[in-house]
Specification:
alpha/beta, 25% strand, 230 residues, 9-stranded mixed sheet
Length: 230
């Protein structure tokens, strides 16, 4: 049986991701930080995402599926996961992405080293659907990113680990934002806490058709601009 209190809860938000969920789940269950809780949030999928997730988790007691009856969007679905999380630290991973084995270990170390830090991202490698490495689509900054947040978002949601208490106190992800809710959240966190990024490739983003960043890049950029000027 897992310990009563996991060191970290990982949320994987899924909507029609049956093809990529097994890889995403496997990368979390294989983390060097084994004291974890995994919650796959099936956001009203029309395919077999929930069943595939349960099969991928198998008999591992650390994982479970939270099935939402209808599609509510990434912000609301992650907020539901945040409220259900058993750990004080919550990490996010998209269903079509995957994490390096030491990702959670390194992020927990960063949070433990400085109580002022409330959000930790990592450098993300970008690959295409065949696994070929791509030139990064977005800019990156390492260390304390508070000064650069008003210019761009250096922390993709899929690479983030957060202090759950801080995020919940701020109201979680704002559902008004469909494509960049994490950017709005980082800005609100940075008003009172440190937001940092590790200069280590600990997450991989797959730029396929299922990836929101690939399918709706213009809308995501427009929303990020609206967040900055708002």
């Amino acid at each position: 049986m897992p310990p009563a209190r996991p060191a970290v809860t990982v949320l994987i938000g899924a909507y029609d991701n049956e093809a990529t969920l097994p890889r995403a789940i496997a990368s979390i269950l294989a983390q060097t930080e084994a004291n974890l809780e995994l919650i796959v949030i099936d956001d009203g999928s029309r395919d077999h995402s929930a069943r595939v997730a349960r099969e991928a988790i198998g008999a591992d007691p650390r994982g479970r599926v939270m099935r939402l009856e209808r599609n509510v969007g990434i912000a609301r679905s992650l907020n539901a996961g945040l409220r259900a999380a058993g750990a004080q630290v919550v990490a996010i991973q998209d269903a079509d992405d995957y994490s390096a084995p030491r990702r959670l270990e390194r992020q927990l170390e960063a949070l433990a080293a400085d109580p002022r830090v409330a959000a930790v991202g990592t450098r993300m490698r970008e690959v295409d659907a065949a696994g070929r490495v791509l030139r990064p689509r977005t800019s990156f900054a390492a260390g304390d990113v508070g000064d650069v947040l008003l210019r761009f978002n250096p922390i993709p949601n899929s690479s983030a680990a957060l202090r759950a208490e801080v995020v919940l106190a701020l109201g979680g992800y704002d559902p008004r934002y469909r494509y960049a809710p994490e950017y709005d959240l980082w800005l609100r966190i940075a008003e009172r806490h440190r937001v940092v990024a590790l200069d280590e490739e600990l997450s991989t983003r797959v730029m396929g058709e299922a990836n929101v960043a690939a399918r709706a890049e213009r809308a995501q950029i427009a929303e990020a601009i609206a967040i900055r000027v708002g």
